[in-house]
Amino acid sequence: xxxxxxxxxxxxxxxxxxxxxxxxxxxxxxxxxxxxxxxxxxxxxxxxxxxxxxxxxxxxxxxxxxxxxxxxxxxxxxxxxxxxxxxxxxxxxxxxxxxxxxxxxxxxxxxxxxxxxxxxxxxxx
Length: 125
What we know:
Blueprint: H1 5-15, H2 20-27, H3 31-39, H4 46-56, H5 60-67, H6 78-88, H7 92-112, H8 120-124
Helix pairs in contact: 1-3, 4-5
């Protein structure tokens, strides 16, 4: 399954219980521009991504990476990409719950001296 910027934008609107008109108000973009992004007719520009990031209270870099304008600085595995996609579809409070769990697991593994082979801690631990 190809996950497009339009797919992501539709999901974010749904998660945030927003409609396209809400995003128009928050970004200052036109109804047509938002509609074309959602349908995939147009791809976002740098400025559009920044406006959407502010409207959703997300880091600019996150939206730029999703749009394919910026390349992630971190190397990712297919599992991490899947986790990121799944997290992007959850409400913010559920994302926070999962982040807390991941931090707990990391602390437990650190105490035990168990690190993933590709973890920066494995190299120094």
